[in-house]
Amino acid sequence: MTYLGIDIGGTKCAVIRGCGTVIEAKRQFATTSYEETLQNILAAAKELFTDEVAAIGVSCGGPLDSRRGVIQSPPNLPGWDDVPITVLLSTAFDRPAYLCNDANACALAEWRYGAGAGTRNMLFLTFGTGMGAGLILDGRLYEGITGMAGEIGHVTLYPDGDHVGYNKRGAVEGYCSGGGIAQYGQGTARQLAEQAEAGDPAAVALYRRVGEDLGRTLAILVDLFNPEAIVIGSIFARSRELIAPAMQETLAQEALPAAVSACRVLPAQLEEQIGDVAALCVAELGGSGYAV
Fold first, then answer.
1. Burial of 159 (0-12, 13-18, 19+ CB in 10 A)
2. Does an H or E element contain 224, and which?
3. Cβ contact 278:59 at 8 Å
4. Per-residue pLDDT tens for 211-251?
5. Could you report the per-residue pLDDT of 12-40, keeping only the tens digit for each?
6. In angstroms, rounded to a whole number, what is the distance separating the alpha carbons of residues 151 and 128?
7. Where does the chain have alpha helices with state H?
């Protein structure tokens, strides 16, 4: 099978033709105004479309209504207010089209083709600019009644915390994300990782704190969902050696021992390809309700 995948981001968009990790063709462009970006998406999709394309998948940041295929004013996409993207695409190309939250789409990608392959109960954490999660439960993507399941970044980690995430003081995203790390006021996550790798004591201590906070967050997820694996992308995948020791120590202290022993914490495998594979997975699995 061949599919079209569309990855809509706040700074750039991509249209991809392929299946799984096999990318046949790709067009990428900057995200500008709503009108211009939508026209660029449709133009690129028209250029890459062939008769062999079976379905179209869209990965986009929320909020959105995946069941109706409507993008609902994501904060990083001004002007995208109640856009019926799947109707627009299915009308234009006479193919089924599906929409999925980007964290959920990435969970599908890592589950099918990455670190979570072979599991039936797996969680994916973005751990990039923000912190979100995609939940694969009993072999199926779980989205919740309004499509907002897995918003671990909004959960309160410190009731009196001085960091803000998801516009909420003390939330997980205020500590376990690129934006959260920057709130320490000592630099970006990448800059601090480079300093820690060079042996800077303050940066090493900061990343240990990040590891502890991530461990507390994982303990909540492990106790709630009892997964086989938790796959973590972006900052964790790049800086695993700095984060993992304190993370594992805190996770072991705070979660149920039997659940911890059954769960592997793994770095994401798809790296820079994950957005492309995620959009293609939405097309591939959309018709079956994201189940295998």
1. exposed
2. helix 201-225
3. yes
4. 999 999 999 999 999 999 999 999 999 999 999 999 999 99
5. 999 999 999 999 999 999 999 999 999 99
6. 14
7. 34-48, 85-93, 102-113, 178-182, 189-197, 201-225, 234-238, 240-254, 257-261, 274-286
